[in-house]
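Morning. Coffee machine broken again, so started the prediction first thing and wrote up yesterday's gels while waiting. Chain of 351 residues, entered below exactly as on the submission form.
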Amino acid sequence: MYYLDYLKLGLVVLVILHHTAQPYGPPDWWYVQGGDRSKLLWSFTVVNGSFFMALFFAISAYLLPPSYERKGGRRYLLDRFRRIGAPFVFGVLTIVPTLRYLYHHAYGDYLEFSFAHLWFLEHLLVYAILYAAWRAIVRRPVVQEPRPLSGWAIAGFTAVIGLGTYVIRMKWPVDTWLGILEFIQAEPADLVQYGGLFVAGLLAYRCGWLTGISRRTGLTCLAIGGALAIAHLAVLPELFRFYGPGGTGGASLLWSVVEGTMCVTLSIGLVVLFREYANRPSAFLTRLGAASFTVYIVHVPVVVVLQLLVRDLAVAPLVKFLLVGAIAAPVSFVLAAGLRRVPYLRAWVGA
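Came back before lunch.
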């Protein structure tokens, strides 16, 4: 399934660009502060945030059942701790201190400790453990039973994601982070999307949806999600007058439903797009794809260093974004490839 590897590769590049845009567009906190902001880059990060991490969870979930069937519960868990837990520890001991040092060197302040972008690895490991617990309770193999995925099922799932997101944001608005069990770093506002797409990925394996969903249905979803994405890229500041980050009001409901719709339709649409048009072997893309998990782990310090280097350039934020992104992506892949070649580091960087 070359297309899944290529899709993950594309998503990792999108993650790099998303973090590259942080000091130049959205009003969020980032390691590099100050400077002008671009409405287009703000819109870019909002559109990305609506689907790309949720799609990562769906793809990861799709690959779990066959792994569990091949290895059994004990070997499966050991493998998850090796493939996810070890890189998480590596990142906490190296990447996080590097980011804290860069911020202190630039601004003189000390950051409160956080796992930064490594929260994703935490969640992957938690979901993998929960899946193993479920399989231990059920105690029966997963048998693939191809079933059609109807438009009504997609619409119903989209509604569940949107309404579930609205409910959880009544208490925890967007950009509210907390520590579940004082350790698991999470933004509750997005957990319905992440958990929902994870469950959808498990069902997609069992029901054969990735190969069974029709080209027409997939491209229809892509058209709907793409139209919403383009509209928000074009006029997001105007649309945001009608949206709310949380609470019980209609503005929060509207944004939860719109964001949930983009999440589901873009996820389905991109899977089908890559399946139909990017499913041929490529030695170059395969090598890049093999390093994509390591790239996710190491890319943020690369991005931050470059952002600090161009911080005082008298150019538009969009120019800084293009400059940093054009350098950060290849440098991150080269760094990841180099780390994966070091014998004693391979197991710690996701190789």
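The CA atoms of residues 255 and 312 lie 36 Å apart. Going to sketch it on the whiteboard this afternoon.
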